[in-house]
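3-deoxy-D-manno-octulosonic acid transferase
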Amino acid sequence: MARGLGLASLGARPRRDAVPEDPGRPARPAGPVLWFHASTPIQFAALADLAQRIGMVRPDVQVVTSFDAQSMPEPTPEAAGFAVYCHAVQADLATHADAFLDHWQPDLCLWAGGRLISHYTRAAARRGMAMILADVSAGDFQAGRFRWLPSFARSGLDQFDTILVTSRAAQQAVARLGIAPAKVSQTDPLRPGVSPPPCHDGDLADLTTDLAARPVWLSARTQPDEIDAVIAAHRAALRLSHRLLLILHLDQASCRDGLCERLAAHRLRFADWDNGDPVEDPIQILISTDEADLGLWYRIAPIAFLGNSLSPDGTGISPLDAAALGSAVLFGPHVGAHADTYTRLTAAGAARTVTSAETLGSALLTLIAPDHAATMALSGWQIATEGAELTDRLVDMVQDRLDQLEAAHETT
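Tokens:
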């Protein structure tokens, strides 16, 4: 991922005529270019999802992105991979804004969050590009610059053609600044979308029949150092729920080595899904290693423990697929890569933290009651699909703008 344009820190005082250089910056691609800006990691992730959606219908469109280095950490190369360039805005300087926009010449600006960076938004407005401001909350109007400089706030917001706010309070705050009501509408917050992994319908139908009314839980992407805790939790839960089936999905195929011997030592009956073993009623653990089967397991299991989260060096996996497909989510305390999403799920009652084999087993016994897991799953589905309507709307808005540009080019 490119590091941006070598911007100075906010406290630096570069020469006014200094133009930042970045020899690693690629050339502007041919065709339409969209500029997305994020103020928070969750907004950045949502814009990545939006870019993917737009790319499916307009493969000729390229995206450059920027992020506010004062309010969020640098995205990982994987997270920023949807963009041809990722620009760290570390200082609000006119020379940097002009250099960025002169090079990329974007056709549209989609700015997420109410933390405006004045030279960048003004430079975009001067160039006459379409400008959309999304995910503006009431909290964005509590910063000192809005209280002390209302004229700046008004002129900053008025540069945008469309302003999408997340609450009635935010809409009222925008109205008090004198922004035309026609520009403003209330929407859901901007959230990462989810495209749940598919599964083979025949496998789903067969397993549903084979399992009948058996209680089932899943340990997804289980890491080598989590296997013992998961097995211990399952053994504890089996004492009170004798027909309970664990789908043990291993993150690494090599984890299968020695696992059969360990399960046999615990007198646990198991089957290997990858080898085509039948899932018969005496089976207590079903072993799987293929990532492509996760869509099937999330649909089968009403309870899912999401791995890479128990050990201190864990970073977690995204819980949105599990939540969208109806699983109540259990997770360990180490989910830093997806902390915002887990926090939202936990606050909604859709997820629970576990810290050990004992707490995992206890949570299982609580959630085996179908009504408990179903209540969590419903809350999780609502969180996973939050923002879908706004994403659809933004895709349509971008499409309309690009159609207008194409029509204008054809008549010139």
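The longest strand covers residues 62-68.
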